[in-house]
Specification:
The complex is a heterodimer of chains A (about 290) and B (about 280). Chain A has about 290 residues and is mainly alpha-helical. Chain A has 11 helices and no strands. Chain B has about 280 residues and is an all-alpha fold. The radius of gyration of chain B is 27 Å and the shape is flat. Classes of the chains: A mainly alpha (about 290), B mainly alpha (about 280). Chains A and B meet through helix 1, helix 2, helix 4, helix 6 and helix 7 of A and helix 2, helix 3, helix 4, helix 5 and helix 6 of B.
Chain lengths: ~290, ~280
């Protein structure tokens, strides 16, 4: 016996396929409207941002030739022919790079400490009072949204030139960025240990110390290391506004067209950033495996 | 009964009963203290090397307090129109920079993904390429592009684009690598070519993730775009730096508030768009 294929009557099929067609037409229309809006946005912002593709194509040679030029010494020889001449300021720049790393370190450390103190107030499971939570969250948002260079500019005026304003600027930005991540970690914990401590008469501090901390510490450390990596990059440009580190010499080299210096400093920055990247990635990997093994 | 400071009065007895557990915790405690000591030593070294002093911090904080007092009430002075125009420029720079970077990074992401690019050398080179781009800050790229297209917002667009190409290539390739292999294996098994596998096996799966990441970056690029004006690459940053240098603190406060409001608005719009385009599925970025 062969299967009878169930076929709807023609009038019903017509109805359904009509509905399908309408549905697809609707989707096509939505896509089309989306594309039109996107195009308008592109044209508008292209106009506002004074985009001139002509200038770009005319001068694109300058971009590539810039990278050509920075690899030639003043005497016209390729930089690779004379490392002594190319990295003539190796020790000077090395010291500034160490300063840059220390700025990033201090900014990350102090930022992480303050973020740690604030994050519990911003977490919904530990701070049921909406008022405190709202204040803590808005404060973190403010710290995070204002770029660190802006803080640096203001602090340079208040604290004077040098690495101090750089550290403080990075610290404030780190409070905002880490505070948010930390409070999200805290919101995802298992609440049973905390409840146990509160039920047996523990204070808020005791419940955080024995109930929350053991669960969140590896994650906190991992995020702080990631932030350190980002802050090294941020600290490398703090010198642009006079807030210490290697940025000062870099912007001078770029502005005064010391081409081979530009490449030497950039290479040193890139190498340092890569080493830090690899190191923190290893550490973070160990931290996360430690957490999973628990 | 008030909670006493010592939660475990019979601690010594417990320690005597479970020597193995206590020894383990003592060891990890030692490691912890050693770590704290090392961090502390480095901190002291850094503080002295970077010339921190209480006098300097104190006088600086006093100055900062004066500035804060002068910031209230925030006012644009007579430059509301100028500031608004500059802010529009900032948003335009962020939008175009992000879009261009996304378009350019899309193919690069595939080249850097281990499961698509079977040629290890190409994959390795692409990775190192995007790493080097990311090692250089947006501000430095802005300085370099100013040499090419001159001062102005266009250099800012190109700077945001360049530094984002580095980030997007990495994020995109990671998203592509974590995609489920089965759809593309299915396409290959029915006789499809490698490109077919990418088009029908990978792109439908990764596109929502990529769009969501790109929208997230649009918001953070608005923040970066506010500062590239400091080196002359357009946007509100130029005015902000100028107002700080000339001590017009009420205007500084006003500009910062404008930026905060704009970033909040873009955050709202982009999370709405993310929901509409991607659905609830992709929450973590």
């Amino acid at each position: 016996m062969s299967h009878a294929t169930i076929r709807l009557p023609d009038n019903q099929i017509a109805l359904l396929s009509e509905g399908y067609r309408q549905e697809m037409a609707q989707r096509r229309r939505t896509t089309l409207i989306g594309i039109v809006i996107l195009m308008l946005a592109i044209l508008l912002s292209g106009f506002v941002a004074e985009v001139r593709p002509g200038v770009l194509f005319e001068n694109i040679g300058k971009f590539t030739s810039y990278f050509g030029r920075i690899f030639y010494l003043d005497n016209g020889a390729l930089v690779f022919t004379d490392f002594g001449e190319w990295f003539w300021g190796f020790w000077k720049w090395g010291k500034q790079l160490i300063d840059t790393l220390l700025i990033a370190y201090l900014g990350t450390l102090f930022g992480a400490i303050f973020a740690f103190l604030i994050c519990f107030s911003a977490a919904v499971n530990l701070t049921p009072k909406a008022g405190i939570r709202f204040a803590a969250r808005r404060y973190l948002e403010f710290c995070r949204t204002v770029p660190e260079i802006v803080f640096a500019l203001i602090f340079v005026v208040a604290f004077g030139l040098g690495p101090v304003p750089g550290v403080l600027a990075i610290m404030i930005h780190t409070i905002g960025a880490l505070g948010k991540l930390f409070s999200e970690v805290v919101e995802n914990i298992d609440m049973k240990p905390v409840e146990g401590i509160v039920a047996s008469g523990g204070t808020r501090w005791q419940s955080i110390r024995y109930g929350v901390l053991p669960q969140v510490l590896p994650n906190f450390a991992s995020y702080a290391l990631l932030r350190f990596e980002i802050n090294v990059r941020g600290a490398s440009v703090m010198g642009f506004v006079g807030a210490g580190g290697i940025g000062q010499d870099l912007i001078e080299a770029i502005r005064k067209f010391y081409y081979s210096d530009v490449s030497a400093i950039l290479l040193m920055i890139i190498a340092t950033v890569m080493i830090i990247d690899i190191g923190t990635e290893r550490l973070r990997h160990r931290l996360t495996t430690m957490e999973q093994g628990r | 009964m008030t909670p006493s400071r010592d939660l475990f009065p019979d601690r010594t007895a417990i320690a005597a009963r479970h020597p193995a557990i206590m020894a383990g915790s003592r060891r990890s405690q030692m490691i912890g203290w050693a770590l704290v000591a090392a961090l502390l030593a480095l901190t002291i070294l850094a503080l002295s090397r970077l010339e921190f002093s209480f006098a300097r911090l104190g006088s600086g904080l006093l100055q900062l307090g004066t500035f804060l007092g002068l910031m209230i009430p925030p006012s644009p002075g007579t430059q509301l129109v100028t500031f608004s125009k500059a802010l529009a420029e900032t948003v335009a720079i962020a939008f175009l920079g992000t879009l261009l970077a996304a378009v350019i990074s899309f193919p690069i992401g595939f080249l850097a993904a281990r499961n698509v690019m079977t040629n290890r050398i190409v994959q390795f080179m692409t990775r190192r390429f995007s790493d080097s781009i990311r090692g250089v800050d947006t501000l430095i790229w802005a300085l370099i592009w100013i040499n090419v297209v001159g001062l102005g917002p266009f250099a800012g667009v190109l700077a945001i684009m360049t530094s984002d190409i580095g980030s997007f290539s990495k994020l995109y390739s990671e998203a592509i690598e974590s995609v489920d292999r089965k759809p593309s294996e299915g396409v290959i098994s029915t006789g499809g070519s490698g490109l077919h596998a990418v088009r029908f096996g990978i792109i439908p799966a990764v596109l929502p993730v990529l769009i969501s990441q790109t929208l997230y970056y649009f918001e953070s690029n608005t923040r970066s775009a506010t500062i590239i004006g400091i080196v002359g690459a357009g946007g509100i940053g130029l005015h902000l730096a100028e107002m700080i240098r000339t001590f017009e603190w009420d205007r500084v406060a006003f500009i910062i508030l404008m930026v905060l409001a704009t970033v909040a608005l873009i955050d709202f719009v982009s999370s709405r768009l993310r929901l509409a385009l991607v659905g609830q599925r992709v929450t973590s970025v």
